[in-house]
TrEMBL record:
The keyword rRNA processing does not apply. The keyword Transcription regulation applies. Keywords: DNA-binding, Transcription, Transcription regulation. Residues 6-63 form the HTH lysR-type domain. This is LysR family transcriptional regulator. It comes from the Bacteria. Pfam families: HTH_1 (PF00126), LysR_substrate (PF03466). Belongs to the LysR transcriptional regulatory family. InterPro entries: LysR-type_TF_proteobact-type (IPR058163), LysR_HTH_N (IPR000847), LysR_subst-bd (IPR005119), WH-like_DNA-bd_sf (IPR036388), WH_DNA-bd_sf (IPR036390).
């Protein structure tokens, strides 16, 4: 059995036809003739020994084999596009484009930019907000315009992903001082009776934390939910309730006493990782990795701050 791949032109013709379900539109997108695409598709089917399309009314539909090949070619061409874009940026000595969530960018990364610039003055970095989709289960966060993405996620990593594991996610409840009456003992078992604030990006956070304390998770109320962690923490700072948040995002608020974390933080199954395309990272990305590791190693399960009330 031969393992020789079909021609790249044939696979491109198929991928575009599978995307548009039209030989005419595929030919227009590829700037070739209708006949050229038809020949490539016919030769591809003969080489693979399967039918990739079937007629459906006046249009085309993919067969089961066609759907399988479409998924493979889509991923392969996306990977090629990303790789070529990465090489072009390296050749042009372009800045490293780093994506991370808006909350992490604003509350953790930007306040430390001066330290990064001091340690690596020649490192050119462009930061962009890159929010996860589908809650906590975004499978692959990179696109052609981004060199790396910094994000929390649970292993195992997607196939083809290169993830530099940097630190555990530390999660815990935080609130504004004075939210609880001074006469009430601040113990974890009072939490289900308090207004609990939730965020869509960490839907399981309260359950994980309460389970770690041996508390009944069925008593959790969804008093108020927010789309982003930034909004959640602003609500906590306004005294609207108790938020559940990563320690990294509240370090400064805890240090200055704007928030307190009387119950501490737990390590969740998620990891903070730097997601990269396949291949060896360049010098600039290597410097970024070294700096991130140095900054994150000082974080402790209590968030690196006093456990004040």
């Amino acid at each position: 059995m031969s393992h020789t791949l079909p021609s790249l032109n044939a696979l491109r013709a198929f991928n575009e036809t599978a995307r548009t379900l039209s030989v005419t539109r595929a030919a227009q997108a590829l700037h070739v003739t209708h006949g050229a695409v038809s020949r490539q598709l016919r030769q591809l089917e003969e080489q693979l020994g399967v039918n990739l399309f079937r007629r459906e009314g006046r249009g085309l539909a993919l067969t089961g084999e066609g759907e399988l090949l479409r998924d493979s070619t889509s991923q392969a061409f996306e990977l090629l596009t990303r790789g070529c874009a990465q090489l072009k940026r390296r050749a042009a000595d372009a800045p490293v484009v780093l994506g991370c969530s808006g909350s992490f960018l604003a509350r953790w990364f930007i306040p430390r930019l001066d330290r990064l610039q001091t340690q690596y003055p020649n490192l050119s970095l462009h930061l962009t907000a890159s929010e996860p989709i589908n809650g906590e289960n975004m499978p692959w966060p990179l696109d052609a315009g981004v060199d790396a993405v910094l994000r929390f996620a649970e292993p195992p990593w997607p196939i083809g992903a290169q993830v530099i594991d940097l630190a555990p996610e530390l999660m815990g409840p935080v609130m504004k001082p004075g939210l609880i009456d001074k006469d009430i003992a601040i113990t974890p078992d009072i939490l289900p009776n308090l207004p609990l604030l939730h965020t869509q990006s960490r839907e399981r956070a309260w359950s994980l934390w309460l389970s770690a304390q041996g508390l009944d998770t069925t008593r959790i109320r969804r008093d108020q939910a927010f789309e982003h962690l930034n909004y959640l923490l602003e609500a906590a700072l306004a005294g609207l309730g108790v938020a559940i948040a990563p320690a990294y995002l509240v370090e400064e608020d805890l240090r200055t006493g704007r928030l307190i974390a009387p119950w501490g933080f737990i390590e969740t199954p998620a990891r903070l990782g730097l997601w990269l395309p396949p291949g060896a990272p360049g010098t600039a990305v290597g410097q970024l990795i070294d700096w991130l590791r140095g900054e994150l190693c000082s974080i402790t399960p209590n968030g690196g701050v006093p456990d004040t009330r």
